[in-house]
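Technical note accompanying the year-one report. For the benefit of new consortium partners, we illustrate the data format agreed upon in the data management plan: each record pairs a sequence with a structure-token string. No post-processing was applied to the example shown here.
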Amino acid sequence: MTIATLAANVYEDINGQITSVTLGKSLTIKMECDDWDTLQKRRRFQIRCEGVIESTVGPSAIGFVDVSDDHCVLWPYNAPQGKLFFSQAHLSLPLMGDAVLGTLYRVHNEIFRGRVPLNTFVNMSLFSTKFPRTGLVAHGPEPLLVRYKNVLAQNVFNGNEPLLATGYVPTHRPNGGYQVLLFDSGFVVCRRVDAWQENEATASSSQ
């Protein structure tokens, strides 16, 4: 049993469930689902994640399992990082802060689908007072900040000026090498994922 085999066979109507999550030297997830061959018995599995750096997984019903090394939740760990600054905001436009925040929220949600909150990257203090003339919009992974930059450059109101002119400044690149174990409503960022059926003696790795 490999994690790829498990991912290929778990789907919404198979009554999958994470029954426990235990964190020690590694993170161990116990899950079960209907047998995809007969649907008349249950299969039980363990998934072990090594080198865990982030986890949002808990006991829950599941209808989806996957492992990826190219997913947006990995950007903070594998992609170049930077900061997004702005200047010359159009203060004459009404509800400037609301317009910027709404635009950022829309593109952020399109990317992360609720997996990562907006305030992880966006400078929310911008929107607690009168919108300033200059400042930091956001910090974080380059692919995300470039998306923010592009959508803020679009002409949301009228005229030819962007909603908010921004500039991206690179800061550093992390060591990377992480992958993500994905479920419907949670994920684990780690170095290695192993999975096995509980009546099998040998684990099989994702690497």
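Partners are asked to follow this layout when depositing records. The helical segments are 3-9, 75-78, 96-112, 142-152.
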